[in-house]
Amino acid sequence: MSYLYETLADLMHLSETHELPVWEIVIRAEMEATGESREAIEGEALRRVQIFKDSVVNGIEDRKRTLSGMSGGQAHILLEHTPRLLSPVAYKALTYAIAVNEANAKMFRVVACPTAGSCGVMPGCMCAVGEEFEMDDTAFLRGFFTGAGIGNVITNQACVAGAVGGCQAEVGSAAAMAAGAIVAMLEGTTKQVMNAVALCLKNVLGLVCDPVAGLVEVPCVKRNGVYAVHAFSAAEMAMAGLISQIPVDEVIDAMNRIGRALPSTLRETSEGGLATTETGRRIAAQLRDM
């Protein structure tokens, strides 16, 4: 009996056929592909979850600016800010996503989830949900492996690199992974996971990758916060019963085609978009002269 999958339709079919949640199928597929024991695989996942948590703390506590001066201390500002418009869990996700990205930019620990430029979204969302609902390691494993399975499919069937598919492929994929992880942590159904992914990803299609001065700080750091909240919106809709009219694998394919159709100037080259605004060019020139 094989638990290997290539598409999210495969993952959904395996889940429904074996009457097992998505995260369980992903663990079994990992065991099958690697030959590692369940204990070893879960242990490594929990080690990475701890890195997520540590990055949140480091990003909030260390308020120094990055070497470029473009980021640092912003998560702490958010933590202190009142009044708040978002729900407590969404506000935490916004703050924690930025914290992880700031910690990453200052080289505390590089978290590629699925990329460095989108590293804050899934950790921020998972840590916010886990904290707000006082969840244990099992809940974090549900979220981690669900997100990992989604990321596996997007990586293999499309792309997660801004240089290939624009930021829709980076922060869009991260948000889709996070949306599925949120649903899994809250013990939603397989169909709800898939709809959350589709609703999330199709509403980020066309997002360009235009880092100022070639660094994953502007607009990347704050973008992680924005799309953490976006992931919550998709998860909320899916768990309420809203569905995506476009099947999730077709959304992934559309994202791939759109990304590859973007001009190279909008695919992480810093030759277009925000990177070529007057201010963007000035920042780049200042950093070159440092």
Task: Give an overview of the whole structure.
The chain has 13 helices and no strands. By secondary structure, the chain is mainly α. The N and C termini lie far apart (59 Å). The model has no long low-confidence stretch (mean pLDDT 97).
* Structural class by secondary-structure content: mainly alpha
N-end to C-end Cα span: 59 Å
Overall mean pLDDT stands at 97
Order of helices and strands: HHHHHHHHHHHHH
Q: Oligomeric state of the chains?
A: single chain
Estimate the helix proportion, in percent: 55-70%
Core attributes:
single chain; mainly alpha; 0% strand; 290 residues
How are the SSEs placed, and which strands pair?
Layout: H1 8-18, H2 22-34, H3 38-61, H4 74-80, H5 88-105, H6 121-132, H7 137-157, H8 162-165, H9 167-185, H10 190-202, H11 220-240, H12 248-261, H13 278-288
Helix pairs in contact: 1-2, 2-7, 3-5, 3-7, 4-5, 5-6, 5-11, 6-7, 6-9, 6-11, 7-9, 9-10, 9-11, 10-11, 10-12
Quick synopsis:
The protein has 290 residues and is mainly α.
